[in-house]
Amino acid sequence: PESKVEKKFPFDIALKNADGKEFVSNKILKKNGKPTILMFWLTTCGPCRMELEAIKGKYAAWTKEAKFNFFAISTDWLENSTKFEDRVKAEKWPFDAYHDFNREFKYVMPGGLNGLPQVFVLNKEGEIIYHKRKYIPGDEDTLIDEIKKLQ
């Protein structure tokens, strides 16, 4: 239930990777002196697919320009776990992807994650300093600019 979810970064939300291994967000989303990007997506979302592709294409260059953490977190329903796993394995993203299989991030992120994709940039203290909903080509360039401001 929502009342049991830790609402302060790095939260305590159960996640699974594409191999089905379970983690807790506070063990993954650590405060390590770097800003963190959280991108929320669905396997059935066309704009999510476009944004993830755009980021994948620029990610290597970004890591040379700035130090940051990046996590792609699916909010798919539990019955879509296989779609999540297949998608992540097929894409071979250079960043970590997890499945919020209990859909609990909606309790901790502003706006309840209504409308995807959504991207949040958190500073090294875990405070949200940038938030974007939906995707328009070029949004990924704004994202790295926000990260550079925090270096």
Q: Can you give a write-up of this model?
A:
With 151 residues, this protein is an alpha/beta fold. It is built from 4 helices and 7 strands; from the N terminus they run E-E-H-E-H-E-H-E-E-E-H. The chain has a 5-stranded mixed sheet with strand order 5-4-3-6-7, with helices on one face. Helix 2 runs parallel beside helix 4. The termini are far apart.
Shape: globular
Main pleated-sheet profile: 5 strands, mixed
Approximately how much beta-strand content do the residues carry?
15-25%
Give the strand order of the largest sheet, numbering strands 1, 2, ... along the chain: 5-4-3-6-7
Task: Please bin the fraction of helical residues.
Answer: 25-40%
In total, the number of strands is 7
Global mean pLDDT: 96
Give a short overview:
This protein has 4 helices and 7 strands; from the N terminus they run ββαβαβαβββα. With about 150 residues, the chain is of the alpha/beta class.
